[in-house]
Design brief:
With 291 residues, the chain is α/β, with parallel strands linked by helices. The chain contains eight helices and ten strands. The protein is globular, with a radius of gyration of 17 Å.
Amino acid sequence: MVPVARIARQGAAVVNRAAGCGARGPRLAFRQNNRRKHHALPGSGRARHRRRQRHRPAGLLCRGAEGARIAVGDLDLANAETTAAAIRAEGGEAHAVRLDVADPASATEFVAAAAAALGRLDVLVNSAGIREICPVLDLSFEEWQRVISVNVSGTFLPSQAFGRRLVALGRPGRIVNLASTLGLMAAPSRAAYTASKHAVVGLTKAMALELGAMGIRVNAVAPGVVRTPLTERYFQDPEMAQTIRDIHALGRWAEPAEIAAAILFLADEANGFLTGSILPVDGGWTTGKKM
């Protein structure tokens, strides 16, 4: 299984099969089936300004408690170190690495640093994510580019760097991307975010097709509304909180640990025939509309 974390302007995780247990992010390793795995998780720290972490690193902490070895990547190294320290406090091993997921050189350096710290890499979790709330006719090109850069390029670049390393070494691996229910449907005033998450879904399938023969599986999680620092203001408004309950068939929102569990499922070696899949973890939101 592999841990996961979500962030803004950060974005991938790498795992070492030597030990085992996850948006621009951390890398960690954890023990599973008496083998150690190493993971790199870009974007697990909290990013500055609007480039903020979309989910708390609950999955990382969970895995840290199981002896995970983790590399945490963040645009702000201090934030990465804060997350790494929290993982170490739970009994895990974690390393902080600066990472800008939208920069090709930074993505390559992150994977190299994760490998140097952890050894063999097994799993990458791409969790970078930011979003705008703006009517499409008022959306500036600058804002459009910012969202696409973090959400799409921030998924592509760490994946490419991770894939290149594994293929060069002749090793298998797993990539788990963080998509969204808005990668399967749409919502008003979120044109850039919706487009970016549809792109993550397409990229996941394209990478799965190309990398499958090389032993690299690629899947994605599509969460519904999750209570995180990025979405916290929604829950301070009783009317908005009720709306969120109403759109989910389960009548509630998700907690970060529930998304982490789905990522662990997709990264688990036991699911070796699973690739190119998009797993909605949305409380039934995309199942249909309540009448």
